[in-house]
Each structure stands twice: as structure tokens, then as C-alpha cells.
Amino acid sequence: MIIDLNAAVANPFDGVYDLCVCGSGPAGMTVAREASARGLRVILLEAGGFEPSEASQEIYKAKSVGALEYYGVETCRLRYFGGTSGHWAGRCAILDPIDFEDRDIWDGLPGWPIARDEAYRRLDDARDILDIGDQSLSPRREPRWKSARFSPSGYARSAPTRFGEKFRAELQSSKRVTVCLNANVVSLDLSEGKSAVTAVNAADWRDRHFKIAARRTVIAFGALENARFLLNMGALNGAPIGDKGGFVGRCFMEHFDIVLGRFKAEHSVIWRRDEALSVTLTGAQARARGLGSAVVSLTPRGEPRHFGRLAPLRGLINELECTVVSSDGRSTICSGDGIATDIIEQTPNRDSRVTLNSAAKDRFGHFRINVDWRLSKQDVKTISGLAMEVGKAIAEQNHGRFKIADDILAGSPVPGFHCHQMGTTRMSSDPKFGVVDANSRVHGMENLYLAGSSVFPTGGGANPTTTVVALALRLGEHLAAVNAR
Ligand SMILES: Cc1cc2nc3c(=O)[nH]c(=O)nc-3n(C[C@H](O)[C@H](O)[C@H](O)COP(=O)(O)OP(=O)(O)OC[C@H]3O[C@@H](n4cnc5c(N)ncnc54)[C@H](O)[C@@H]3O)c2cc1C
After folding, report:
1. CA–CA separation, 278 and 283 (whole Å)
2. 74 — phi, psi (to 5°)?
3. Which atom number of ligand 1 is nearest to the Cα of residue 90?
4. Cβ of 99: how many Cβ atoms within 10 Å?
5. Quick one: which H or E segment has residue 198?
6. Contacts of residue 321, Cβ cutoff 8 Å, sequence gap at least 6
7. Measured from the CA of 451, which atom of ligand 1 is nearest?
8. Is 360 buried (19+), middle (13-18) or exposed (0-12) by CB count in 10 A?
9. Is the CB of 89 under 6 A from ligand 1?
10. Nearest atom, ligand 1, residue 464 CA
11. Rounded to whole angstroms, how far apart are CA atoms 468 and 459?
12. Pocket test for ligand 1, best of 60, 88, 425 (most atoms within 8 A of CB)
């Protein structure tokens, strides 16, 4: 059943639910569907309606305050039924085996507390949800690519699945899930010892407040908002929930997007296709060179892109140089050059973080956030090392000659991002290094869980949503098991 809180004349909530899921994006909707399929009575609270609205979107207003500009704080999220799946691009990939090893490039922090097989135990079901059919996620066969530095990437294309559209009718007719639209979750009531959630408080857009009781609660607001919610709960309760290690809001990670350089693409058969060639840095190479994970797209005839606060100025200077300097003499990357772009791992970094902005509140009285997005020394090493590896891989196969971008050569890269927000409530078995345990339960809380990429301890070089959905299925399954005890 789907109800609209704005239109409800009486309190529509009915007794104690087995599970209250907050947020209806890919993470929350998947947990709710999976838990209900296993017999749980679920209430799914969604802040927005069936369509995006300015009022709801405005709640996400926040500031980028870091050395790296992060305008994605406002443009990378949708606050309505189905969440950000309303405009995701549908590239599906999974983390590499190396992403589940303990690596010394992670600022002394532990990586995933679960094995890769366990993270992707429900991958087949995630594939169905994301409509990727029989497309393989394993490395592709590309006999003309022979460098051991990179292997041709495995990835699939989702339609892309819009969760709100795809599952609306199913949820409408569901007997076990009640979806409540226009229900802004504003706070949690805690038990006396602050170790359990006793009720979830939600407000509609007419400022009417409701209490929802459930045995267990999952917060699935997306990475920035999960941290913001816990930090705001902390402001109300004295200390953020699950913050023994001080990690709520820390280790905010994106995937870097940067033009590594340009190549001449005339003389090799590998460039005869129009499409970009996508290759993944091999685990052996990443390990040997101490680099983070990455996927690189080699596009024979690309368009240069510029990132950061000075992007318009850089673009202008670039254009000028492209029109006055001959191709051989210039260092600039121009339209039509072969271009190497990427999805690069940002290593977890305590100082790259989300904090509350004590000077700005939303209409529900919650502090907005400041996003301080930073590049660490390791990130600079990964970006420049990757550019070197691309150059060597192209040259050693005689596919062309690669020229590394100036900002990377100068040691001051200015990357953009992919709208893959991760890491602000990281998963760790040890509460000293994370916010949730291996089952996504908030440390120190009996019945509060988080879902989505905020729990990623590391982000590898894979688009996050396939992993988000696989983990959400695992969480739904776990919640059904503990509910039965
Ligand atoms: C332009 C773009 C392209 C992308 N392309 C890709 C891609 O190709 N591949 C890929 O893997 N990923 C991609 N992503 C990322 C992908 O969209 C996210 O990984 C995914 O949506 C995360 O799902 P989620 O459920 O955790 O969060 P969201 O989808 O953000 O959902 C959060 C939900 O919580 C609700 N909510 C928030 N606050 C409250 C509250 N207080 N009370 C109640 N409800 C609340 C929101 O309304 C929303 O429904 C892309 C993102 C963008 C922006």
C-alpha cells in the first residue's frame, strides 16, 4: 500500500511494525522489499512524493568548503520516491578482489570487515533488480589489448532502472509494505540508556508530526544525509549515535574524475572503434606501485573537461591555446584528441568530511552540512602513478604516444567527481574505526541500521550502486533472520 502523509486526515500508522525503513532510494527500497518478501511487516518512510519538488530538494542545500570544490552536494542527489535512481546513469560494476584486501594506502584504517564473496552473495538478485540481464561483470575479452598493467574492464549497463517507476505498482499492491510519502524523518526517540530506538518521528509538509514504532529501524538517506542525520541526532542528544571512534561524517569519499592526458590515436587497430576502451588497473600493478584502484576510459576522439573553481578560466585558456598552437607544439588537451578519463579510488581520509553548519538550519530545524572534500598525498600519488601507467601501457603496445596532463605532471591535479558519495559512516568490526558493524548495525545500538554507500569503508574504482543493492539485499535477509529469533 502507498499512502500520502500530506493527504492523511488521521494518523495512518498502525501498531508496531517489524521494520521501519527510512528513505526509498535503491538502498532503502531494496531492504524494504527483501525484508517484506521474507515475511516482515514494513513501513517505508519517504520524505518526498512521486515527483521531485523544490521544497523537498531545498532540504539538501549545503555548502562545499573544502580545498576541492564539491558542487555535487546539491546537484548529485534527488529527494523523492526512488531517490537518486531518478537520474543515475546505470553503469554497473563490482569492486575488485584487491579492494577487499588490507592495504597500507588507507591512512592506517581497516578495509572491509566482510569478504568479497559475502558482499556479493546476493549479486544475482541485485542484477535482476538493476535489469542488467546476462551482461557479464567479469573482465572483458579484448585480444588486441596485451598490457599486464591494465585488463579490459567488466561492467554492465542498466536501463537505467528507476526504482520509483519500477517498483511503484508492486509496492502499491503489497500487503506487507506500507510506503508513506511526504514523511520527513526528523528524529529518533531513544531508550533511557540511548542504546535502542523506541520510535521514529516524521513530519509532513504541513508540519504535522507523527510517531512510528518499529522493532528495528534502517536509515537509508544516501551518504551525505546519513551522516547529517546522525550528526543532527548528536546535536539533540549530546553525542552522535555510533560515534565512539569519531567517524560519523569522516572519510567522505568520491570517485575522482580527471583527464589524465592525451594520446595520438592514428596508428593502431585498437582505436578503430568509435567507443572508448575501458581498462582496469590490475591488482598486481596497484599493489606493486602502491596505487588505489581505478578504471580508465581511453577515448580516441574525446572532449577536454575542466574541474574545480577555476574550470571556466581554464577552459578559456585551453581553447585559446588549441586555436593558436599547432598539435605537436602544445601541451593542452584539445577537442578531438585521444583522451584518458577515469573512475579513481579516493582513499579513506579522516579529514575529508561532512560537518554540521551551525549557522544554517532547514525548515525542520536540522543543521545543514558543510562538505570538506580533500585530496590526500596518497590520492595525488594514485592519480599521477595511474597517468604514468597509462602512458607505459599505450607505448609498450605501440597503440600511440601518451602525454600526461600538465596539472598532474606539476603534482597539483584538480579532479572532478562522479556523484558517487561514500564512506561517511564506514563499516568496521571495531567501533574505534567505524560507525556500523559487519551487519550494518550502528555500533552501540541494538536496533538501528544504516544502508547505502555511507557504509563503504573503501570505494575502489567501481560505480557504487550494484554494491549498494547487493548489500541492501544482504541486510534485508539479516533483518528477517534476527526478527525471527
Ligand atoms: C547524475 C548521477 C549519475 C549516477 N550514475 C551512476 C552510475 O552510472 N552507476 C552507479 O553505480 N551509480 C551512479 N550514481 C549514484 C547512484 O545514484 C547512488 O549510488 C544511489 O542512488 C544511492 O542510493 P541510496 O538509496 O543510498 O540513496 P538515494 O538514492 O539518494 O536515496 C535516498 C532516499 O532517502 C530519502 N530521504 C532523504 N532524507 C530523508 C528524510 N529525512 N526522511 C525520509 N526520507 C529521506 C530521499 O528522498 C531518497 O529517496 C549516479 C548518481 C548521479 C547523481
Report:
1. 16
2. -105, -30
3. 8
4. 25
5. strand 197-203
6. 330, 332, 334
7. 26
8. middle
9. yes
10. 11
11. 11
12. 88
**Comparing C-alpha atoms, which of 443, 57, 5 is closest to residue 200?**
5
Task: Please work out whether the CB of residue 453 comes within 6 Å of at least one atom of ligand 1.
Answer: yes
Element (H, E) at 371: strand 367-372
Taking CA atoms, 80 is separated from 24, 37, 205, 225, 453, in Å, by 8, 23, 13, 13, 18
Q: Cell 546539491 belongs to which residue?
A: 74
Confidence of residue 236 (pLDDT cuts 50, 70, 90): confident
Evaluate whether 220 touches 450 at the Cβ level (below 8 Å). Answer: yes
CB of 459 closer than 6 angstroms to any ligand 1 atom? no
Q: If you write DSSP's letter for every residue of 126-172 in order, what string do you get?
A: HHHHTT-TT---SPPP-TT---SSEEEPP-EE-----HHHHHHHHHH
* Nearest protein Cα to ligand 1, atom 3: 88
Counted residue by residue, the chain has a size of 485
* DSSP 8-state code for residue 332: S
Alpha helices by DSSP H, 256-369: 283-289, 311-324
Amino acid at position 161, single letter: T
Residues 177, 180, 184, 187, Cα dihedral to 10°: -50
Rounded CA separation 455/467 (Å): 11
Q: Which domains does the chain have, with CATH numbers?
A: 2-302+337-483 (3.50.50.60)
Chain centroid offset of residue 43 CA: 25
According to the model, what pLDDT value does residue 187 have?
Answer: 96
Predicted TM-score of the model (pTM): 0.97
Q: State yes or no: cis peptide before 139, omega within 30 of 0.
A: no
In this predicted structure, what is the pLDDT of residue 199? Answer: 98
pLDDT digits (tens, 9 = 90+) for 320-367: 877 776 666 677 888 888 999 999 999 999 999 999 999 999 999 999
